[in-house]
Design goal:
Elements (H helix, E strand, L loop, with lengths): L8 E5 L11 E6 L5 E2 L5 E8 L5 E8 L2 E2 L5 E3 L2 E6 L4 E11 L4 E10 L23
Parallel strand pairs: 3-10
Antiparallel strand pairs: 1-10, 2-4, 4-8, 5-6, 5-9, 7-8, 9-10
Length: 135
């Protein structure tokens, strides 16, 4: 069972063998922790990250416990993902690891408003909610 964060969390672990003992930084997460979003259709989830030492080796994004990394776009120092999320509370977690093995983890919670504007324009078999997409 996945733990449900009650507040935005950030943790870091470090490895000393390479001389790089600083974990990557994660910042500018969207939606903000605790934010209520009301977007037409696709909810956009993104974050920026930076590693001053050996450079970023791996990035992983989970939304509501599902690994969505393969559906996300990672460009240099940011990750972007969009999905037509159902109204309600959602959980995002980003893990960034550098080449020295230092790892940072950031988890946050946001709410998608329960209004017609968030349902998109069409309703298919899935009730108007679609699959993840890159942007």
């Amino acid at each position: 069972m996945t733990a449900i964060p009650t507040a935005a969390t950030a943790t870091a672990t470090t490895a000393i063998a390479s001389g790089d003992n600083r974990a990557p930084r994660i910042f500018d997460v969207t939606p903000d922790h605790g934010e209520q979003v009301s977007e037409r259709g696709w909810t956009r989830i993104s974050a920026r990250f930076f590693d001053r030492g050996t450079g970023v080796a791996a990035v992983s994004l989970r939304v509501d416990g599902r690994d969505v990394t393969s559906h996300a776009r990672v460009d240099g120092d940011d990750i972007r993902y969009a999905e037509n999320l159902r109204p309600g509370r959602h959980f995002a977690e980003l893990v960034v690891r550098d080449h020295a093995g230092n790892t940072s983890r950031r988890a946050w919670v946001f709410d998608v408003a329960n209004d017609v504007r968030n349902h998109g324009y069409g309703y298919g078999r899935d009730g108007g909610y679609g699959q993840p997409q890159r942007w």
